[in-house]
Write a structure and sequence with these properties.
With about 300 residues, the protein is α+β, with helices and mostly antiparallel strands. It has 2 domains: about 1-180, 3-Layer(aba) Sandwich (Rossmann fold), CATH 3.40.50.150; about 190-285, Quinohemoprotein amine dehydrogenase alpha subunit, domain 2 (Lipocalin). It has helices at about 1-25, 35-45, 65-70, 85-95, 125-135; strands spanning about 55, 75-80, 100-105, 120, 145-150, 160-165, 175-180, 190-195, 200-210, 215-220, 225-235, 235-245, 250-260, 260-270, 275-285. The strands form 2 sheets. The protein has an 8-stranded antiparallel beta barrel with strand order 8-9-10-11-12-13-14-15.
Length: about 300
């Protein structure tokens, strides 16, 4: 009986130690598991599908990576520095039958090559998201990013949601915040275009300044000066031109797809029943840079 009690005590101590280790983690992050409800909603918001390669930075017990593979058919990689959690994640993947589509790697998330990702996911503190931001912005336009609870500073999300999560005990207990971004193509610079309006070729010029996915700046339509304002969604661009100060200019709405130094799409000129739609092509004659964010971390 004494031997049995000692065995039970040892087992209990092992379970407590394992639980404490899983909650504490190692490296830069204290491990806190994302509630499954939040995992499911993040994957839906990111539109994860069988064609995706998802990289989860700080993968913990693997639930995000495993769910992406099992429910959405994606291939996925999880990186973490905690060997206990990595062992748990691999075991969970085996139990769920997704070892052919998921991989877990012991690696510092800041050193991880994420260039092949079509989706990146995080549950990291704000300062860590900021350190990752410039790296993420260099990914292929259209790459989606989803984050739990913490945003990316001055890079405002394209979409966000608030969820009621009763089992969540950390951060803001009972509430989870989910953020979604789409990496924008670089549109900054000077673009020129010609629109054929009623048989007449009219020259246009757009000087686009870009702050993450947002674009604005001066524009000229023929000899009239206007202001442009719009947004990037991956390689897709949409913006409008309206009059500046006392200048009168008919409202223009542009949409198209950016590929390298050209944009191809459609322009809608005017409003209401009298609006005209014409084909639109633009060429960049001078390349620009993103406007630097005030919270941009200093290079290390």
């Amino acid at each position: 009986m004494k031997a049995m009690k000692q065995s039970l005590l040892a087992l209990c101590m092992a379970v407590v130690a394992a639980t404490a280790h899983a909650q504490t983690g190692v490296g830069d992050v204290v491990y806190v598991p994302t509630p499954q409800l939040v995992v499911d909603e993040m994957l839906l918001m990111g539109k994860v599908n069988k064609n995706d390669y998802l990289i989860d930075l700080g993968s913990g017990d693997g639930r995000f990576v495993i769910t992406a593979a099992k429910k959405h058919g994606a291939k996925a990689l999880g990186v973490d520095l905690d060997t206990f959690l990595l062992k748990m994640a691999n075991e969970n993947a085996r139990k769920e039958g997704v070892t052919d589509r998921v991989t877990f790697r012991e690696q510092n998330l800041f050193e991880t090559d994420i260039s092949a990702a079509t989706v990146v996911s995080t549950y990291l503190l704000p300062e860590m998201n900021l350190r990752l931001r410039s790296k993420i912005m260099k990914l292929k336009p259209g790459t989606r990013v989803v984050a739990h609870d913490y945003s990316m500073g001055d890079w405002y999300p394209d979409e966000q949601k608030t969820l009621i999560v009763p089992e969540k005990k950390v951060g803001n207990p009972g509430i989870s915040y989910i953020f979604h971004w789409v990496v924008p193509a670089l549109a900054a610079g000077v673009w020129q275009s010609t629109l054929n309006i009623d048989g007449k070729d009219v020259p246009y010029e757009f000087t686009m300044e870009q702050f993450f996915q947002n674009i604005d700046g001066p524009a000229r339509a023929g000899g009239v000066t206007g202001e442009m304002r719009g947004k990037m969604n991956g390689e897709n661009i949409r913006f409008t031109i309206t009059g500046k100060a006392a200048q009168k200019i008919v409202r223009h709405e542009f949409e198209g797809r950016l590929a390298g130094e050209t944009i191809t799409g459609l322009a809608r000129i005017g409003e209401g029943a009298g609006a005209k739609q014409v084909a639109w092509n633009a060429k960049r004659i001078k390349r620009g840079d993103l406007v630097r964010a005030q919270d941009e971390p200093e290079a290390k």
